[in-house]
Amino acid sequence: MNQANLDTARLRERRRLMLRIRAFEEAAIRAADNKLVLGAIHPSVGQEAVAAGVCAPLRKDDLLLSTHRGHGHTLAKGADARAMMRELFGREGGNCGGKGGSMHIADFDVGMLGANGVVGANINIAAGAAHAIKLRGGDQITVCIFGDGAVNRGPFLEGLNWAAAFKLPVLFVCEDNGYASTTKSSAVTGGGDLCARAEALGVPTESVDGNDVMAVEETALRLGAAIRAGTGPRFFHARTYRLLGHTSVDPAKYRPDGEADGKWADDPIQRAADLLTSAGVSEAELTADANAAETEMQAAYDDAAGAPWPSVRSAYDDVQDVGAVPAPQGL
Amino acid sequence: MPALTYREAGRQAVIAEMRLDQSVWCLGEDLGRGGVFGQYAGLEAEFGTDRICSAPISEAAIMGAAVGAAMAGARPIVEMRFADFALCAVDELVNQAAKARYMFGGQSKVPLTVREPMGMWRSSAAQHSQSLEAWYAHIPGLVVAAPATAQDNYTLLRSSIRIDDPVVYMEHKHLWDFEGEVDEGAADFEYGPEQFGKAHVMQEGDACTIVAWSAQVHVAMEAAKTLAADGVHVEVINLRTLWPWDEAAVARSIAKTGRLIVTHEAVGVGGFGGEIVATMAEKHFDKLQRPPLRLTAPRIPISYAPGLENQVRVTADQLVAGVMQLR
Q1: ipTM (interface pTM)
Q2: Is-catalytic flag, B128?
Q3: Which of A84, A173, A181, B257 could make an S-S bridge to A145, C-beta 3.0–4.6 Å?
Q4: Left (φ > 0), alpha (ψ -120 to 50) or beta: where does B317 sit?
Q5: B3-195, which class in CATH?
Q6: Do the two domains B3-195 and B200-325 of this chain adopt the same fold?
Q7: What percentage of chain A has pLDDT greater than the value 90?
Q8: Chain B (88-107) residues lying within 8 Å, Cβ to Cβ, of chain A
């Protein structure tokens, strides 16, 4: 294959992944509407290019720390969709045995060390995971994804400073969707330029269109290679947009009329499709890819809906080794 | 057996474990110069600046980095300098370290020893003197240790480094120079889970049970000595760890004495003494011949001026009076 064909094949692969993320979250939203997913879920619809471009090219032994909006990152790192859907449903066979749900999804087997329910809390943890890699002398990297809201929390300063001071192998990715929960970030962020904050802490930066999956991937690979070569952390500002609300039940009425409608034209999946069409991929092939993602995630939905609840006794498992309280008699 | 200070016992414990296990990693402020209290003196020279990591003044990053490193295979020893400063890192300790194993369904443990020097120490006032052990005992997932003697500090610190749980390890600042015999030759199997929830009876007696931990054990011993001169023999229990705590040892003792005093340097309201008294009242009421008594600090912050600072101390005289009140 020539370069153009290779690029087309890879773009199609990444679009498939974005379609899988979208289909997973749409299935999860349906399940929430049907009272099958019980807790809050935070969809990343519109932001899939960041997950696909950053996480898919990582090595399996690279480490990833994610956020409450982390389904896409987790899938892209290689986690099993069925186990993830079971976790969202709180069922046996979920990645966390039904103890974590959407906001604490983790799959250590693929190096995904956890989503986090506390904004910005993953930044220091990622710095530490990278520190452990450095102490061991490994060549893995750690990727830490957080939103634009996290740059206003203390861990952003402490964690980036830490990584810079100790020259740690960590890629900080700010997935900037414009909203900190339900507040426009620009209204509550001093200085405006997020890269300037990271630069001030000694972390080199790049800012890219986060809805252009191949640009995201190219940047992530280049920054990742520099980090892997031992040159310390990087900050990657990926500009994107959250097409839905903060949670699946948030109608996002706080946004100016028409803002989201306009942004649908910039949907990263559609943009990838347009590029593929102009590269000669047929409509039938594009539709087949979309259908395959839908089918896979509907099967994950059906599997989770039919899965048993975890044993109630397991509520007492995995608290601690020393000083664990026993399950009540007869449970 | 050599006599070591409480400080030196802690230092030797860290050295022993670092020599045995390459994954043990110390991080905290000013460790390069030996730590604020000299408890890391000379460690940088032996283990290097990678393993003895002098950190920026970033408590949240110190604790958070330790959590991440623990999940990635290290066994961090976190130095918080003063227990009060650990409050800058409560999210990292309570929401992250204590919960990660559970909320990820057992995919990872968080082997972490968090040293939090606590307690009153020569006019250090409200932000350098607190005893907050009860807060941590309240949190599922955490282990809480409060050593009283040099031997406790050696044994419990080695054991904390070895177990796979996050341990809040609260040394008392007033005890750094206290000397005691330390058996460093104990076989390896003696350091580990079995050291937790195991109280030591410091002095046997039948008149009253006094339960204490950390520096307050020494106050209780002073009271015991005064009382013994008058022919009143109290039993002093050094709890050593608060979670888990040795319920059986306390129950055994009150079966003999029929009387219970719990004393701690921390504020009484919501303090761990309440947990001990309530547990004995619920499960061992029949063993108590008198109402149990808590002798603890009033609910006021700790002052700078000695006369004011002394208002939060529970003295040996107060313990003597308490014992006499229960006779």
Answers
A1: 0.96
A2: yes
A3: A173
A4: alpha
A5: alpha beta
A6: yes
A7: 97
A8: 91-92, 95-96, 100-107
